[in-house]
């Protein structure tokens, strides 16, 4: 009787340890919080490292070709009776630069804020998602055309996802401007929680990254486009 109790206790104890549960297996590529796989992220960043030295030229090629198809857009750069060439050239460069900032951004919250700011800026200038999405698609097509010899399926999928994010987040009036939220945060007199030195450093780093992204997003809609 005693031996049976001992055996029973050993059995119940071993049942807690063996057999070990098999972890849940996820099939397919693992995606980050922004929906990109590791191979897509890598392909986008490698392509953008090649584009960076030629951002101004590529931006002009894409934007001016786009305006040939949507000629009404050039009116957005008028300052009364004359065409504001400075704003036109600046937008051509800033748009492709903003595209690159999205690719390089690792923080999903910052990524979302950048998309939201771009949405708000173009909405104020009465430029809808249809045209912004088409411009993003024109840029993606241009990149694939320029790098057709070294293009990959991962690069194509990554660009498609970026274009989709431009299309999804436009014309959304429920989104609050990230710029307004950040301004409210900066004016909040309450001290940060936790380590004040660490919090101050994190806040400064966040604001610096946020400012550069906001500048690029705002510049993509200079004079209304």
UniProtKB/TrEMBL annotation:
User: InterPro entries, alphabetically?
Assistant: Globin-like_sf, Globin/Proto, Mb-like_M
Q: Specify where the region named Disordered lies, as residue ranges.
A: 176-199
User: Which residue intervals are annotated with compositional bias (Polar residues) in the record?
Assistant: 176-186
Which GO terms fall under molecular function for this chain's record? heme binding; oxygen binding
UniProt name for this protein: Uncharacterized protein, isoform A
Species source reads: Drosophila yakuba
